[in-house]
Q: What sequence folds into this?
């Protein structure tokens, strides 16, 4: 029996199930009481501070924190980012949350620096089994369906081309569940 860390793919699929996501693109707003999403601009206005102080401390993409008093994660994203980029940043944040990488009362910048979290975001925003099932393999189709930034869609397309059929029984099982949950996606040629 394998007792190691679960794969980023399984973690992402479990998060899709946990947050009851059954269609693409994944949402940019979440309803669960344990996650709230705000903008950096809201935070700066609330504290009557210059937004640039937040950019200097957390970077331009935003940050995640856990507030134990409220038992919730708070994701702060940049309102000036495009919706596809906010979606990508939220996916990274969900990856940090689901993989227990945030300590109470400590913020963590949203970045793609952690390979595991980056891999999580690629599967969470663009589930491999759904894209393969529905023939969504090109960058253009991935952008159309998943609504992620071009460079991420291009990378996902390359990853799909290199993807070999999994032999992992856990992955096969959860991919079957995901394919049953997600409705078929039809895209124009």
A:
């Amino acid at each position: 029996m394998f007792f190691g860390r679960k794969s980023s793919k399984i973690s992402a699929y479990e998060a899709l199930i946990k947050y009851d996501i059954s269609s693409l693109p994944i949402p940019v707003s979440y309803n669960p009481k344990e996650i709230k999403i705000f903008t950096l601009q809201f935070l700066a206005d609330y504290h009557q501070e210059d937004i640039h102080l937040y950019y200097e401390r957390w970077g331009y993409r935003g940050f995640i924190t856990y507030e134990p008093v409220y038992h919730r994660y708070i994701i702060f994203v940049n309102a000036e980012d495009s919706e596809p980029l906010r979606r990508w940043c939220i996916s990274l944040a969900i990856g940090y949350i689901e993989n227990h990488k945030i300590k109470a009362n400590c913020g963590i910048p949203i970045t793609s620096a952690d390979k595991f979290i980056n891999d999580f975001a690629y599967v969470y925003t663009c589930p491999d089994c759904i894209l393969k099932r529905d023939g969504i393999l090109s960058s253009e189709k991935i952008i159309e369906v998943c609504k992620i930034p071009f460079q991420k869609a291009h990378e996902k397309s390359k990853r799909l081309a290199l993807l070999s059929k999994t032999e992992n029984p856990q992955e096969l099982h959860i991919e079957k569940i995901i394919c049953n949950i997600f409705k078929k996606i039809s895209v124009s040629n």
